[in-house]
Write a structure and sequence with these properties.
About 25% of the residues lie in helices and about 20% in strands. With about 350 residues, it is of the alpha+beta class. The model is unreliable at about 185-200 (pLDDT under 50).
């Protein structure tokens, strides 16, 4: 269907709920799942109101090229003008594309995933009758397998029965990752401090080689094969919260990371706290090692700067047979390396997550 709209000479959009003098920002058309690809794929669009009058009496041959209409389209959809006017299907910035669909709905629950196949330029079987979770899971697993894009792992909400690293609903992508907050103050007496290596420069070079040799994340047989940097959870402490609060708040100390607080929908005490049972991990993709604009920075300096930056972590629990499962959180788990010496002790691994 995406190709059909892309090849059209003109797409006419009839907005039955928009009056001649009204704005289309709140129109139901922008809340329907299938209309997202109609909007993005069509190169030329004209909007008409309930009386079949041109929207705002704008006689432009293409409302996508009218500055005033384009501003309203951005407001109504949350999509940047460069995508509205010159959209290319594919998996670039996959999370943003999922966010565009997060406020939309379809009559058939599974259609919300199917309506995105063309936007991601994917050809997958349509299987009406499958659950919405399964349809979305198939879409996300294909995105990961083909692009290695780890941005689709940044979500908050209910986990999918399809896979623990995927959300049950596309609405979980509604909240875009906001600027990461500063981690709470350290408590040195409770933190495991890393020992200073003999040669930091050599250690950084070895770490760099390890990261560059990692494969892209991929999805295989319902398993997410995830390259990452791992941090063992050393201690957890449950915070007192109001009885009316649905979430459980925990303070977590992990080796190599600053202390952090997270909110979970379920009690963490229900997870076995044996040695190594809980991990915080930093998903890794080769694009995180993109060259700096500062040509004078050494490879070691670039890597150290990258790993010093805050990041969104995943909380995993260890299962038998060297497998892991993600524990869904009620907030993005923002954290940061303790200090440069802790970065030098980073453990690079490839985990099987179910």
């Amino acid at each position: 269907m995406f190709v059909w709209y892309r090849q059209s000479a003109l797409t006419i959009v009839y907005l039955s709920d928009v009056r001649d003098t009204g704005s289309f920002v709140s129109s139901e058309w922008f809340r329907r799942g299938w209309t997202l690809q109609e909007l993005l794929a069509s190169r030329t669009i004209l909007f008409y109101t309930r009386t079949w009058s041109l929207y705002r009496n704008i006689t432009s041959l293409n409302h996508k090229t009218d500055f005033a209409v384009l501003e309203e389209l951005e407001k109504a959809t949350g999509i940047g003008s460069r995508f509205l006017t010159n959209f290319s299907p594919g998996m670039e910035d996959a999370r943003s594309r999922l966010q565009w669909a997060s406020l939309r709905a379809t009559t058939r629950p599974e259609d919300i995933a199917y309506s995105l196949f063309g936007i991601f330029n994917l050809y997958l079987p349509i299987m009406y009758g499958e659950s919405a979770e399964n349809a979305l899971g198939r879409l996300l697993s294909e995105i990961v397998s083909r692009s290695g894009d780890i941005s689709v792992l940044d979500w908050v909400g209910e986990p999918s029965p399809f896979h623990s690293c995927f959300p049950a609903h596309v609405t979980s992508y509604l909240k875009l990752p906001s600027p990461l907050p500063q981690p709470i103050a350290e408590e040195p007496e409770t933190i495991l401090q890393a020992e200073q290596p003999v040669s930091p420069s050599l250690t950084l070079r070895m770490l760099y080689r390890s990261l560059t040799k990692l494969p892209l994340p991929r999805f295989l047989n319902r398993r997410l094969i995830l390259p990452c940097i791992t941090y063992r959870v050393a201690a957890i402490q449950r915070r007192k919260t109001s009885p009316s609060t649905r979430n459980y708040t925990y303070r977590i100390m992990a080796s190599g990371l600053k202390p952090l607080e997270i909110a979970l929908p379920e009690k963490l005490e229900d997870v076995t706290m044996s040695q190594g049972a809980l991990l915080l991990v930093r998903p890794w993709h080769s694009k995180l090692l993109c060259p700096f604009t500062d040509s004078h920075a050494t490879t070691e300096e670039q890597l150290l700067f990258t790993l010093e930056q805050p990041f969104n972590a995943l909380l995993l629990t260890e299962l038998p047979h060297n497998e892991y499962r993600r524990i869904a959180s009620s907030n993005l788990i923002a954290t940061q390396a303790m200090d440069p010496s802790s970065i030098l002790k980073s453990k690079v691994r490839i985990l099987d997550i179910v």
